[in-house]
Design goal:
Largest sheet: none
Helix content: 55-70%
Number of helices: 20
Number of strands: 0
């Protein structure tokens, strides 16, 4: 008799809930629906549970009502509810409701999200998973360790990117380990993460990374260190610039270095700035791009009290680039 009554309730809700446009009435139907499912689950009435689950799936497909259904799924505190919630991760507009629902599912949700992260290759969804994880009160950031040290380099790279974006200082010891022992692509991402965290501890690790065997990573480290203005760091950047100016072909890196050093107005790099301005390629044209040369000129202009520098500006009156001529 109870089963027959439950089936009639489901039929009644099916007929009314999908078409209901009045919010308060819809919420009432949905609440009965959610409670009916929980009761059926607690009493192991498998046939009824399956009927409810089919209807939940169909309700979740109704875009206008999806947010309310997501909340209801969280309240079921069931494995089915969790599975259904995980299918909604692709919808950014429902993120707040998903957070609310997953919080109700507790540690079970944390475990499933951690398990799901490596299986999803889409970086946007991976970012969303971490955002959800760190918002859950049941989450301990140290639980991310298994992702940081996952055997797949692509998982390590993406989790490092997200840690950097979120500035998760608490995980800096994990980043340090990968910055020194990971594959090249992982070490590079670890350096980028440290540059975003920008703490004293991050700076110390970056200074150690200047000894990396890979030149591309050393360049990334120098770019990252340009965000710091203490004496030790500036000294290391100047040292790197003096040693490598002939080797650095990427104008972007030189630009970052000059912008970084500009904060401390250091006369020691004046010869290097003039080198950037004056050096020519084999076609007798400026070796360095216009943006970089202009930045070098701006830096030199900071020393306007130095008459020799200002006098030397006259040499650029016939420069082939209008932006330099008219500076």
């Amino acid at each position: 008799g109870k089963i027959r009554l439950a089936k009639r309730l489901i039929e009644f809700l099916k007929e009314n809930i999908k078409e209901e446009e009045e919010p308060e009435v819809f919420f009432t139907y949905l609440e009965y629906f959610q409670k009916g499912y929980v009761i059926a689950k607690e009493n192991n009435i498998t046939d009824i549970v399956e009927l409810f689950e089919v209807e939940f799936k169909e309700l979740l497909d109704i875009k206008e009502k999806r947010k309310f259904v997501i909340r209801a799924l969280g309240k079921t505190k069931s494995d089915f509810g969790l599975r259904m919630l995980l299918t909604t991760l692709w919808e950014e507009e429902s993120l707040e409701e998903i957070k609310e629902a997953l919080t109700l599912l507790g540690e079970k949700a944390v475990k499933e999200l951690l398990k799901l992260f490596p299986e999803i290759e889409n970086l946007v969804i991976r970012k969303r998973i971490i955002e959800l994880l760190i918002s859950l009160p049941q989450m301990d950031l140290k639980d991310l360790k298994e992702l940081v040290f996952d055997k797949r380099w692509s998982v390590q790279r993406d989790i490092l990117y997200i840690i950097g974006e979120k500035k998760l200082q608490e995980l800096i010891s994990y980043i340090e380990e990968l910055a020194t022992s990971g594959q090249d692509i992982v070490r590079k991402e670890a350096v980028k993460a440290l540059s975003k965290i920008k703490s004293d501890e991050a700076k110390k690790i970056l200074l150690n990374c200047l000894e990396d065997k890979n030149e591309e990573i050393r360049k990334e480290v120098v770019k990252a260190l340009c965000g710091f203005t203490d004496e030790e760091t500036v000294s290391k950047i100047k040292e790197y610039l003096k040693k490598n100016i002939e080797k650095i072909e990427e104008a972007e890196i030189l630009l970052e270095i000059i912008k970084g050093l500009k904060k401390i107005k250091d006369k020691e790099i004046i010869p290097l700035l003039f080198k950037i301005l004056e050096e020519k390629n084999i076609l007798r044209k400026p070796k360095y791009p216009s943006e970089l040369r202009k930045e070098a000129l701006k830096y030199l202009a900071e020393f306007k009290e130095d008459k020799k520098i200002i006098e030397k500006f006259k040499d650029f009156k016939n420069d082939p680039e209008p932006e330099i001529r008219t500076f």
